[in-house]
Amino acid sequence: MVTPGITIKDRLRVLQPNDPDAYYASRELVPSDMLNDINRAKIVITNYHAFKLRDRMELSAVGRALLQGRGGDELQTDETEGQMLQRVMPELMGMKNILALNDEGHHCYREKPESDEEDVKADERTEAEQNNEAARLWISGLEIVNRNLGLTRVIDLSATPFFLRGSGYDALRRLHADARTVYPDWVAVADATLASVTSIAFTPLRSATTPVTSTISPAMSLSLL
Length: 225
Hints:
Layout: E1 2-3, H1 6-11, H2 23-26, H3 35-39, E2 46-47, H4 61-68, H5 81-88, E3 98-103, H6 122-148, E4 151-158, H7 186-194, E5 202-205, E6 213-215, E7 219-223
Parallel strand pairs: 1-2, 3-4
Antiparallel strand pairs: 4-7, 5-6
């Protein structure tokens, strides 16, 4: 499971079967006769920042220049993909057919080179650039997992399943065409909003060139890498 930050990562520790406050029994998420099965599961909860390849050698600019030598190739001191995976998810090394869950999955997308949206306002540009940088790191990390270990499926979980402004896509467009919601009608969406499960519910839109589109949140959307 990949999260957007350390705080959310810490809150999700209750999904670890060996955690004292694990939800599987207390919230009856798993039948009692299957608790032993869930205890055998290998679950890794991390934040997307951990996917960034770290520098294995702390060198000053002068030290790096001395080791590199005049006219030499650039010194490569970053982790390899395998070393990053060993650091982030040692429990999964050697395993195949891994399921990935993206919490707040609307932060994980591939930036579109040719934008579908109007120019981003100056005061929104910095935030858009930060969002795109985070999205690149997040999805690149999943691609590394897929290349080295193999991902069976990636499931995006989000209460706002729409592209972020500045991503290059229409900001009101769903992340996935096959998005599914656990709140199937507007009454349930209102209940979800009151329960703080979702923050924004968009109303249907119609224009001369665009058909009616209902956008309901929250949603659980499925995609394959």
